[in-house]
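Summary for the funding panel

The consortium committed to producing paired sequence-structure records for every protein in the target list. Below we show the first two records in order, beginning with the earlier of the two.
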Amino acid sequence: MRTSWGSATDRGLVRRINEDALLAYPPVFLVADGMGGHAAGDVASRLAVEEFAQLAGRPVAEPDEVHACFRRTARRLRTVVEAGRTAGTTVAGVGVAAYDGAEYWLVFNIGDSRVYRLADGVLEQISVDHSVVQELIDAGQIAPEQADEHPERHVVTRAIATSGEPAPDYWLIPAGPGDRLLVCTDGLTIELSDARIHQVLAGVPDPQEAAEQLVAEAVAAGGRDNVSAVVVDVAAATPPSDMEATRPSRGPWTDEVDGATIPRSSLHRTEGSS
């Protein structure tokens, strides 16, 4: 599977620095939203990108290789951040994967950055937020439309942090020829509705222009946080020889992970044709 993509990031109108970082190079596309302020949050997101960048240029992203990147980021974060300081980063992304001879998207997430897929005209949020608000929604204690105004809307329940082992979620989704993926930090989704995101993704064919427009609109709508977006398309052109090889995945990652937050299934697979 060959991909085309675009990416954009902006400090926004309120934050002093940009603690977001992103990676857009096959087979991995991701955003990282750092937490902890200058010399902490920006370091955390940068470390995540550095570790995942080790997968760049490979034909596919293996689930165990992706999880190893999460673990290495956490270990490095504990050694780099000054004693007594806390820091962390969310990470959301998608990798090109192969399983049983078929092409898949390997979606991964920890925190409240998100992965969406636009397919057959329908926009779907694939990832599930690891946040206090999402847990309240899941428990039926608040309605989804109350989330944007909830006082704890920015509190995440999982992240790559200076304590504990990271516990990301994974989804394995069949890749379709018309798929468009959006990976974004919450600086985008707090400013733009899913309906507006859908309009831009469906109406702007070029992935770079789509990413830039989404970020620009989020900043214009208030820019209360750093904003980052990566848009990934399945390219229709015949792949060059160096992109043709795919190798079978060893299967979904199934190791148990210890975490301090409410556990979710470590791998969600959506079967079916697309």
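The next record, for a separate protein in the list, is shown here:
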Amino acid sequence: MIKIVNLGMNHETAPVELRECLVREPGTTSAALASMRRLQSIREGLFISTCNRVEALYTSEDPEEAKRSVIALLSDLGGMPEHAFASSLYTFEDAEAIRHIFRVASSLDSMVVGEPQILGQIKDAYYQATKEKTTGVVLNRLMHRTFHVAKRVRTETGISDSAVSISYAAVELAKKIFYDLEGKRVLLIGAGEMAELAARHLLGHGVASIRVANRTFHRAVQVAEAFNGSAVFFDEIGAQLLEVDIVITSTASTGYIIDYEMVKSSLRKRRNRPLFFIDIAVPRDVEPRVNDLGNVYVYDIDDLKGVVEINIAQRKEEAVKAERIVQEEVIKFQKWVETLEVVPTIISIREKAEAIRQAEIRRSLSSLGQLDPSQRRAIETLTLSLAEKIINDPIVVLKGKADRRTRDTYLDIARRLFKLDQENGGED
């Protein structure tokens, strides 16, 4: 009986220094697939390799031998003994393996639940496997179903709707203030990692330009080049407030970079255009009183963390809906897998019926004399219809028993009744 197995490690079971041993070489996936193709115990396989997980998904009729072979494969790929990583591995079989890949693709098993990158990574892994010809009937259907499940989760739940990173929460707040970020201008003050990431997210949402101010002008030029933007002197910040719409600050200053009077003096010339400050610095770069000015909005790191916490709670609620979708799809796919056990018998019944039909046509045609093409077609249609109707009920019964405990009994009876396992049509 064929088994679907998922064996691997992820961010919860293995530290990064262990995971990186298995993904540091650029050709790891191709090498793994080539090895899996040579293993006698594995029928089909694919290999998922990301910064947060390393997994082998495969089918086998001898799961214990296949497991030993895959662990040895991982040992070779990582250049380390099996005992160094064996305790970090998890193994799922059949329904649990199906559920696991559905959950992974739906980002329910990710470090950040709802992140969209993992689905693309799984699609890449599947593409590699099809290119290396290591997948077949079972994994092809499983992966297409996996993509369907991920799409259902994305469209039927809000699991990916809310920002759960500081940088992305900043973008979410900016969109609430401006609604449309298209054409907006950004001033990035300082070169903190979160601030740069927020600026990158803003660019992805259509802002027109990014200007960078830093105490070290050389560093400002470097950062500006990364965003295809422009560098400005630190002393120009006051003048820049007249032109930009969004200001992201992330400096190591011990005092305020932007104070109440600086912003107030710029408002008259801004003609009521909103000004949005994202202050990610600790201690803060923007004086809190700035938030009291009209059409000015200031959010600091604690405000952003509050948004993230609310959104994480919302994602947890949506994850419950997603888990229900996954479980529903697991049941559907498992039922299909179970029908695979009856397929060979159904095929044999059809083949035997067709062989009998063809033999009887040949025997009858000799006594019917010369027939024109339309008469031959009529005989073909008649005999084909009769054969299909005769075997239809047994086939329907077998399909209906595919997921029942009595399946093997019905398969045995069917094979005996149609004499599928007897040579030369002999009796038991």
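Regarding this second record: The chain has a mean pLDDT of 88. The beta strands are 3-10, 44-49, 53-60, 90-93, 185-190, 209-213, 230-232, 246-250, 275-279, 296-300.
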